[in-house]
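Reviewers of the previous submission asked for a worked example of the structure-prediction workflow described in the proposal, so we include one complete record here. The input consisted solely of the amino acid sequence. No template or homolog information was supplied to the procedure at any stage.
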Amino acid sequence: MVETVSSIRPNTSDATAQVLVIACGALAREITAICKVNRLDHVTLTCLPANLHNRPEKIAPAVQRAIEKAGDTFDQILIGYGDCGTGGDLDRVLAQTGAERIGGPHCYAFFTGLEEFEETGSDDFTSFYLTDFLVRQFDSIVIKSLGLDRHPELRDSYFGHYEKVIYLAQTNDPKLDEAAQKAADRLGLAFERRMTGYGDLIPFLKNG
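From that input alone, the workflow returned the following structure tokens.
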């Protein structure tokens, strides 16, 4: 059985094609907001655990199991993952199933917009990215998972080659802005905020 962190099934109409979105748990809030604002009532969202990113080799098998579990229930299946470190394994799974993922290597790219991300990639090569989700979960996902709470001396080993934190903001939230700045300070890095909104995630969900 595929473990989910959220599963949302809105009221649907028989006249509307039913769409399943299988996504990273880090995108649950954003996808839910997009569906609500755009009245995408034909969309069902199932999220896999966000901590799969710590073991990217497990993402493709988990997505495959979720697709198999869905069976023939839906007319279309969309995947809310970039490649996310799977080394092409996710695309190979999707090629066998007919499901389609959002374009790009990771959420930083599709939040920014693939074209813009490619244009700024060389300038931002020494930057550490945060999203709304990562700002909220900074202590658990970054500090604790890397052991920096117990061994702060490891900071230079992990972040010695970074120059700044770039916060890709999906929403205008002063509390998140403040938390992102504090995260950069904690890592001893410069800070930059970029308002991206939901980027390519909106057309991906609306157009299928």
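The CA atoms of residues 22 and 63 lie 7 Å apart. We consider this example representative of the routine output the project will generate in years two and three.
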